[in-house]
Amino acid sequence: MLELNKADGSLESLFKPFYEVATKPEYNLIAFSNYPPLFRRCVECGSNARGTAFEYQDPMIYYYISATKQGATNTLDSIPSMKALVQGSTQPYSPYTLNYKFTVGGATQTPALIMSKLPKAFQDVYSSYMTMVLKQNLVVWSSPGNKPLLPSYCSGQYKVENVKSNSITVKDTLITRRQDTSNWAASKTPATSAVFCVSSAPRTQAAISLGSGVLCLEQQAVQTLFSTIAVTAGIEECK
Fold it and tell me: What keywords are assigned to this protein (predicted)?
């Protein structure tokens, strides 16, 4: 068990702002993790549709609290998508995938996209789903653990090519797959709609039968940085 507001706890930086804010009774909070240790993601968005988008990822929710302010109308129980999220996925019929676009940032708004798939979709989230939504060729860095990576996908209109090297170099620092448990993808070529994405799923056969989620940012500078890292390391190219 972890103290969520312990000063030296692993979750302190995530939860401390919530516990210290004077308006805490007005907030709903849901915390979930389908990710390896030390991976955190926080993106604010006001739309209730985010609850449905996350529900499609079949998340492992480990903590939640509803607004307790007297007379509060936007509690977890009063927002259908949020209530469904904390009660567990209830999507018995297809489609088993969902995508949701929104913007993040202040004065400079950055388009963002959440893509989610339930285990019942039974597909590689990169080659069978992301390429169809984004309509772009992708390069992928994935941490498969002790499982083999799926080969690069070359038969469709849009390709998914793996970083084949067991290491990448970031600002002159060599990083191995053993050190880096992240899964990310980037558009292979620059464009105004180029994206950088982080995912909860590696490109393995085992991940096909798991729920997973992807967050993409439409930001060409970030895409160029990561696609360059991938190409420099060497990719399993489609011929």
Answer: Hydrolase
